[in-house]
């Protein structure tokens, strides 16, 4: 989880608008990145800026309208708060390009998830407690990380986005239908205004 260049967060970043449910783009399957170049690094910088501004602990490129296989995560502050009550904590930004889960534990954990694309809605979701993830870093080099706890949950949540899957797809159909109906109604009201 180390080895990211110091220039990960650089001047010139911008906060991009988030795509909100029921936007159909959230169901797109994202395309792989062929080459890590300045465009990809700039996109990652914008993703971190957008994620921190929201504020969130993870973001997939599709959530800002870019259907490419890139996710950003930073559970450092949230984990420090949960483990030690430390409000400050340190940032631990990780950019994962073309991430794929190569193994996962049989042990399951339940975490109350939320999503920047489904604001103010939270639900318990079951996922593997530990995963090993292969990805390219910002230098275009293949890396693997072992993730557990909140990081494992966050990485799985964001990789789901790359495959057009939302965390509400892991809850009951009744609850999912209610959430979709609510956000569809809000979107229609916004269009009328």
UniProtKB/TrEMBL annotation:
Record's cofactor remark:
Binds 1 Fe(2+) ion.
- List the EC numbers from the record: 3.5.1.88
GO terms in the biological process aspect are: translation
**Which segments does the entry list as coiled coil?**
none
Q: Keywords in alphabetical order, please.
A: Hydrolase, Iron, Metal-binding, Protein biosynthesis
What positions does UniProt annotate as the active site of this protein?
158
Annotated residues for binding of Fe cation:
115, 157, 161
Could you say which cofactors this protein requires? Fe(2+)
Spell out the reaction equation it catalyses: N-terminal N-formyl-L-methionyl-[peptide] + H2O = N-terminal L-methionyl-[peptide] + formate
Q: Carries keyword Hydrolase? A: yes
A molecular function (GO) held by this record is: peptide deformylase activity
Q: Which Gene3D superfamilies match?
A: Peptide deformylase
The record, for HAMAP family, names: Pep_deformylase
> What function does the entry list?
Removes the formyl group from the N-terminal Met of newly synthesized proteins. Requires at least a dipeptide for an efficient rate of reaction. N-terminal L-methionine is a prerequisite for activity but the enzyme has broad specificity at other positions.
Report the PANTHER family cross-referenced here. Answer: PEPTIDE DEFORMYLASE
- Family note: Belongs to the polypeptide deformylase family.
- Specify the protein name: Peptide deformylase
What species is this protein from? Answer: Ancylobacter defluvii
